[in-house]
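::Encoded backbone::
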Amino acid sequence: MTAILTLLALLFEAMFGYPDRLTRAVGHPVTWMGWLISALDRGLNRAGGDPAVRKAAGVVSLLVLIVIVGAAAFLIEHSLLLLPFGVILLAIPASSLLAQRSLYAHVERVAAALESSGLQGGREAVSHIVGRDTAELDEAGVARAAIESLAENFSDGVVASALWMVVAGLPGAAIYKAINTADSMIGHRTARHEDFGRASARLDDLVNLPASRLA
């Protein structure tokens, strides 16, 4: 069943993506995860505290995140599968955890900007998907930066989410996305997050390992 769910979710996401109207109305699942991560960071990450305590707090935060996200995804999956054509209905929320259409759209905008607005337009478009300074990039550099961004995000945005969906259904993909989001938000070697975010960074490396080999 999980393989069918994943194929349907990939198909739905490729065809429709995540509607902008829905994002404006209720947000996106990854945004909801981000709110929870931010709340845990504010509540449990005490600046200037003992490093061991902050590492332990990071582990607790990660466990709370996994339990809440996993439980919510399990309830959604269990409820929808009780309905007629449940796997088709389940593929709709599952598709929100994939990002193939959005990845393509971001890169396509760069190509369109280069064609319609020249180098300056391409630099502006690619600046929205890469962290580097784009002011000095030539046309080939802009195209290369866009392709590199696509390649870097393909593993965690598509392959890993789909893989964990095959392994454990909607809960598997949702928990993976929560871990990945936590790493992007708190898994940095900064004064605030080096200790608190260590568990998130390490677990993200672990859950991405199978997909990185496939991608």
